Amino acid sequence: MIKNREKTGIVLAGIAIGVIASLLVLFGNPVNMGFCIACFLRDISGALGLHTAGAVQYIRPEILGLVLGSFLMALLRKEFSPRGGSSPLTRFVLGFFVMIGCLMFLGCPFRMILRLAGGDLNALFGLLGFVCGILVGVFFLNRGYSLKRTYKLPVLEGAAFSIIQVVLLVLLVAAPAFIYFSEAGAGPGALHAPILISLAAGLIVGALAQWTRLCMVGGIRDLVLFREWKLLMGFLAILVSALICNLVLTAVKAGTFFTLGLEGQPVAHTDGLWNFLGMLLTGFGCVLLGGCPLRQLVLSGEGNTDSAIAVLGLAIGAAFAHNFGLASSAAGPTANGKVAVLIGIVVVAVIAVANTVQKKQA
């Protein structure tokens, strides 16, 4: 009975999140990018001046709200637990290369689902690569991969990342001269829903994700290891609800919320091989981290400083990608980006092997 209630809760949460993501596009977010952890962290990095790509600079309230929503829900459920110390530098490196994979594909696992819900068939190549990356990660999990235990930390340490989100919200509202914003018409960074709507959406998604433990990597991993569908059902619910919402909005608003095909998709490219390899790197790295980018943000709100370090790795990875021409565009992947993805796969594999061998020797 409890398991059935949990599954029902996860499905209902997934339906709500899918609808929210679609409505964010209606209110101004880029098409097929109602909610994307990788893209939004990239925009925040640009707003803080960590990269100078003028098309992708904006402090996204959805990310701030997601962390704060998780923080508040964790406090409410007495699950706020400051902890860390589990190979933080390794987690930073993994977060860095997960972002490189995401920006090769042009989206995180969350956006991959939203792209499918918008009719973007290029995301199928990404989904296949993502699953393959997770399977490689599961191979190492079965052989004892571990980044060691975490340790209890002071409350202020666990709350620091959530406090940073409040500071970023103040900077967004105050808009001082040292914060950068994409100019109107300049690109995805210039497209955004009103601040209060975006913040409310983030708070709801963060609270729901904390409550349900929603994680796409965890869903596929648990299906492979334990034949457990529970977490994956949440993302299937996101896909179905976002798809239905997009179809309804397209019919009612006569917009481009749903366009089936490969060509001409918003903020996407048609190179199937590199969509596959980018998400393979993402899936592999996320398994070693213990969760997808969405899950890392939620855990950060719960007081997990290791996840906060992984999120910083994601943010610096985004800045690095745009400063050195690693990120893809609608024109396709860059030569630098291809090299970076291959290097990332090797680095993540070395981390997996090293932390599996050490576990066996211990």
From TrEMBL:
Keyword hit for Methyltransferase: no
Record keywords: Membrane, Transmembrane, Transmembrane helix
- Looking at the UniProt entry, the stretches that span the membrane are 9-27, 58-76, 88-112, 124-141, 153-179, 191-211, 231-252, 272-294, 306-327, 339-357
* A Pfam family this chain is assigned to: Sulf_transp
InterPro entries for this protein? Seleno_YedE (IPR026366), Sulf_transp_TsuA/YedE (IPR007272)
* Protein name as it appears in the record: YedE-related selenium metabolism membrane protein
Q: What are the leading ranks of the lineage?
A: Bacteria, Bacillati, Bacillota, Clostridia, Eubacteriales
